[in-house]
Amino acid sequence: MQLLKGKKTLVTGGTSGIGKVIAKTFAAQGADVTIIGTNETRAKTTIDEMTQVKISDEQQFGYYIVDVADTTGVQDAFDKIGPVDVLVNNAGITRDGLLMRMSEEDWDAVLNTNLKSIFNFCKAAVRPMMKQRSGKIINISSVVGLTGNAGQSNYAASKLGMVGFTKSLAKEVASRGINVNCIAPGYIQTPMTESLNEQQRAAISDKIPMGMGEPKSIADAALFLASEMSDYITGVVLPVDGGMTA
User: Fold this and answer.
1) Is the Cα torsion angle 102, 108, 112, 115 positive or negative in sign?
2) Contact between residue 14 and residue 23 where contact means Cβ atoms under 8 Å apart
3) Considering the entire predicted model, what is its pTM?
4) pLDDT tens, position by position, 51-90
5) Of the listed 63, 155, 187, 232, which one is catalytic?
6) DSSP string of the chain?
7) What does the pLDDT look like over 199-229, one tens digit per residue?
């Protein structure tokens, strides 16, 4: 079954980690995929990998190098991309540190990349979706936004803000056939978690009944929310965390 055949999809932060796996998963299900990133070399590599798993020669893949916090830059990119059927807001960064030592620059960087970005992309995408009376928006949050975590006040604030944004937008656009949902990944093996030492990884794994997860688990959840199987689901926060928040 080709769950996304003919669907035009856009994935931010799509050149590495979870975003890259989501992009490849969508490509393998027949979607046209545009990725947004900041590294052209990684973007080209991702395009090559999507080409290897595509199911039709008619599928189209592309990328744009965009600062996701730049409202004008995002709108300019959308003017070239055109309307999309599925938007995945996955771009995110961390600048960890205890609050009393955290700089304003680190606070602003995380809030702008993680939270302002979904304002930028959703605002650009939602008007065309309303005209076509359909669309799927998937915001990638984090269990840290639900539970908090010492040394990550900026990251947790951005990710919980994403939850409130998701629920509010879902209510605004439901009557136009647009679904807006949120995935809250637990600790997933990505470049972001590879920086942890063995002691830190062991301490985290001890808190997760199913241990640390793989990006594929998040991509599969995104595929479900992007497909027609989730047409009556909106405003939901779906933890994919191996039982961490059970």
Assistant:
1) positive
2) yes
3) 0.94
4) 999 999 999 999 999 999 999 999 999 999 999 999 999 9
5) 155
6) --TTTT-EEEEETTTSHHHHHHHHHHHHTT-EEEEEES-HHHHHHHHHHHHHH-S-TT--EEEEE--TT-HHHHHHHHHHH---SEEEE---------GGG--HHHHHHHHIIIIIHHHHHHHHHHHHHHHHT-EEEEEE--HHHHH--TT-HHHHHHHHHHHHHHHHHHHHHGGGTEEEEEEEE-SB-SHHHHTS-HHHHHHHHHT-TT-SB-HHHHHHHHHHHHSGGGTT--S-EEEESTTTT-
7) 766 777 788 989 889 999 999 999 999 999 9
Domain ranges of the chain: 8-187+216-237
Neighbours of 65 (CB within 10 A): 13
Catalytic residue at 155? yes
Please give the C-alpha separations between residue 219 and each of 42, 124, 168, in angstroms, as whole numbers: 19, 23, 24
Return d(Cα 130, Cα 41) in angstroms, integer.
34
Strands 8-12 vs 86-89: parallel, antiparallel or unpaired: parallel
DSSP string, 111-128: HIIIIIHHHHHHHHHHHH
Residue 148 sits at φ, ψ, to 5 deg, of: 75, 160
Which class for 232: exposed (0-12), middle (13-18), buried (19 or more C-beta within 10 A)?
A: exposed
Residue range 8-187+216-237, CATH number: 3.40.50.720
